[in-house]
Amino acid sequence: MAASNVVVVMDFDKTILDCDSDNWVVDKLGATELFNELLPTMPLNSLMDRMMKELHIQGTKIEDIVAVLKRTPIHPRIIQAIKSAHALGCDLKIVSDANVFFIDTILKHHGLKECFSEINTNPSFVDEEGRLRIFPYHDFTKHPHGCSHPCPPNMCKVQTLLCYAPLLHDTYTFSLIAVKQARIS
Predict the structure, then answer these.
(1) Which UniProt keywords apply (predicted)?
(2) Collapsing DSSP states into helix, strand and coil, what is residue 120?
(3) The whole model's pTM is what?
């Protein structure tokens, strides 16, 4: 099979990264206690938007968040593997419960952003006050995705992955390989 017929869909947290980006940012910005206190009261996606609000109120600037994201641990072999797969013509995609701002910032920092043809994740943006806003991929308050898979209410990765299947059946071989917390020695 030619590499140009290979689609690689991967998660971001604990797959490309060696950690969970949400926890990394919260921990490094000193908000772990508040995060842990609020975690049982709301979905993670809503919690991260709330944490960005609390950090903003405390004086955290978007530049502070960017600096923390640039220190997120990623194994050098992962960087090389992504660059190599892209150079061979593989179509690389991300399906992640992180958010656009975190993923784009980290990928750009490592020179990987252009390697990915598509990133499916929670939308986010910096508002006019300089606060990072994070929203759900699926608006679970209006239209819950209602699947039977053990996924968070804001994003069903299985549904997102299955959207690729009809596009691939004639040209590509479609194999689903789940990799979680993989380590490269």
Answers:
(1) Hydrolase, Magnesium, Metal-binding
(2) strand
(3) 0.83
CATH code at 15? 3.40.50.1000
Structural domain range at position 95: 3-168
Q: Is residue 175 part of a domain?
A: no
pLDDT tens, 20-62? Answer: 999 999 999 999 999 999 999 998 889 999 999 999 999 999 9
- Active site residues per annotation: 11, 13
Element (H, E) at 121: strand 116-122
Q: Which of 147, 43, 65 is nearest to 109 (CA)?
A: 65
Query: Is 184 a member of any domain?
Result: no
DSSP conformation class of 41: G
Residue 91, SS3? strand
Considering its fold, how many domains does the chain have in total? 1
